[in-house]
Amino acid sequence: MADQEAEAQPAAVLVGKKPVMNYVIAVLTFFNQGINSVSVRARGSAISKAVDVVELLRRAFIKDLNVKNISINTETLEREGRKSNVSTIEIMLEKPKA
To answer: Which of 4, 29, 72, 73 is the 20 to 30 Å CA partner of 86?
Structure first.
């Protein structure tokens, strides 16, 4: 039953200001827990760090990692009465089938 829930709602890693390896370890932890798909999400200046996370995973840790989907979008944020557009990215990763 838990496996079906994990399939329906993928785990998410939100990339921010921490070092790249923290996010790599977070994704690896989800995969080691038996979760088959993980979403790596970022917005703004953290987008390049999210791409770094995925590339490091693919090149150094999981050679046959599947990048299932990449979504880009724009969110409108309102801070201090001003609206601003912020770019977002979501990279869906899938653990290779054994």
So the answer is: 29
pTM for this structure? Answer: 0.85
Report the candidate in 89, 29, 18 with the shortest Cα–Cα distance to residue 57. 29
First to last CA, the chain: 20
Give tens-digit pLDDT for 36-63. 999 999 999 999 999 999 999 999 999 8
Please report the domains of the chain, with CATH numbers, ordered by start residue. Answer: 2-94 (3.30.110.20)
12: Cβ contacts below 8 Å, ≥ 6 apart: 38, 39, 40, 41
